[in-house]
Amino acid sequence: MINIKQYADSISKMFKWNYTTVIRTHYKLKDHLMDKKVSKMVKTNNVNAVFYTLENDRDKWSNTSTINHAHLLIQGRNLTREDVAKSLNINPKAVIDVEKIKGVKKITNYITKSMWCQDSHHNIFY
Fold first, then answer.
1. 44, 54, 111, 126: which one has the fewest Cβ atoms less than 10 Å from its Cβ?
2. Measured between alpha carbons, how far is residue 21 from residues 6, 64, 76 in Å?
3. What is the pLDDT of residue 89?
4. Is the pTM higher than 0.85?
5. Tell me, what DSSP letter sits at residue 89?
6. Model confidence at 65: pLDDT above 80
7. What are the helix (H) ranges across the chain?
């Protein structure tokens, strides 16, 4: 089995990732729907590539999966919260601060931290 840190390092080198964000909706994001949304996102003029992971949230009392959220690495130009929301067809309030990446290896390690957990999902589109 591949080491997660090696996997994250490889992902960090695939593209010149320059933006990151978290998508947190009020409903559970299904992997096949998120794949469709991100696939459409990379077809917009200001997005070249997206790597994302779906990570389950846990109820702190029962430790059961309740809902999930998505972490995104993006190679793009002049991205705003509204751009991301529109390209994913979601409410802009579900997009948490689109930030420029300062340390791509560090953020990639963080984004991939739960990738091998049950019910997690990850994919890349370019």
1. 126
2. 22, 25, 12
3. 96
4. yes
5. T
6. no
7. 4-14, 31-41, 81-88, 104-111
- Interaxial angle between packed helices 81-88 and 31-41, expressed in degrees from 0 to 180 and rounded to the nearest 10: 120
The percentage of residues in the chain with a pLDDT greater than 70, rounded to a whole number, is 93
Question: Which of 97, 60, 50, 100 lies closest to 78 in space, CA to CA?
Answer: 100
Contact 50, 123 (CB under 8 A): no
Look at the block and give the residue holding tokens 């990151």: 20
Reported as a single tens digit per residue, the pLDDT across 80-103 is 999 999 999 999 999 999 999 999
The Cα 49–Cα 64 span in angstroms is 32
Element (H, E) at 115: none
How far apart, in Å, are the Cα atoms of 9 and each of 5, 12, 46, 112? 6, 5, 25, 10
End-to-end CA distance of the chain: 26
pLDDT exceeds cutoff 90 at 59: no
78 is written with which tokens? 């002049």
